[in-house]
Amino acid sequence: MKTSHLKKPAGNKEPTKRASVRFGRPPKELAGEVEERILDAARSVFLERGFEGASMDEIAEAARSGKPTIYGRFGDKRALFTAVMTREVYSRITQFKPEMPEGATLEERLAHAASTLLHWGLDNERLGLMRMAVAEARRFPDLASTVSRTARDLSTELGVRLLTELKQSDELASLPALSPERIATTARLFLDLVAVPMLLRGLFEVDISVLEPEIDQHVANAASFFLAACRFGK
């Protein structure tokens, strides 16, 4: 007796196997890219709208990312704002690459280094973020103090690098103020004298271009005063 082979009805074909689709977090190699995109978008929206005016919907749209992705990484708007400000302080100062100071004299080279630093620092977006950090200090007291201390510490390190480069082949190398144990304090005094006054003015100027013509004269006076103090100080 032959075994009968039952044929499947023509209309009941086996379903086509679908390719598996993964949802959730992106691969590890792309996670950093997603977070950077979110932070970049949040930075732009916060600058334009302020903390109160910025919405997570607008940030998600600008980042081309879903809100669940943003909340999954940063928790809420306060945490996202904190992440934006913290990244700004670390990245902006550490990314500054000073040019080799130019000039025939030590005073001219110091003034050139200071001028480069000020022209870099007097940037509309950087100052906009500083204004926002000041405006939100009562809402984010821990963030405000952390940003202030971190910016001061990192900028002091930058000042040490500048002065260390300048003293390699100059009379500065023999000055007590630039000895290894004192150079960090001297660098901080240099920045307080050269950079801080102009940056504070920049915070209150709607159009910071008005400060540009004053920078060269300001740094020339500050460099001269600073070197005199280094030469005659103990």
Structural summary, described in words:
- It is built from ten helices and no strands.
- Helix 1 packs across helix 4 (77-94), helix 1 (28-53) crosses helix 6 (124-135) and helix 5 (106-121) crosses helix 10.
- Mean pLDDT is 82; it is low at 1-30.
- It is elongated and about 60 Å long.
- With 234 residues, the chain is mainly alpha-helical.
Keywords:
0% strand, mainly alpha, Arc Repressor Mutant, subunit A, 10 helices, disordered N terminus, 2 domains, 234 residues, Tetracycline Repressor, domain 2, 67% helix
Low-confidence parts lasting 5 or more residues at pLDDT below 50? Answer: 1-30
Q: What's the helix count?
A: 10
Give, in order, the helices and strands: HHHHHHHHHH
Estimated helix fraction:
55-70%
Radius of gyration: 28 Å
> Could you tell me the number of beta strands?
0
CATH architecture of the largest domain: Orthogonal Bundle
Mean pLDDT: 82
What does the overall shape look like?
elongated
SSE arrangement:
Blueprint (H helix, E strand, L loop, with lengths): L27 H26 L2 H8 L3 H8 L2 H18 L11 H16 L2 H12 L5 H26 L16 H12 L1 H9 L7 H21 L2
Helix pairs in contact: 1-2, 1-4, 1-6, 4-7, 5-10, 7-8, 8-10
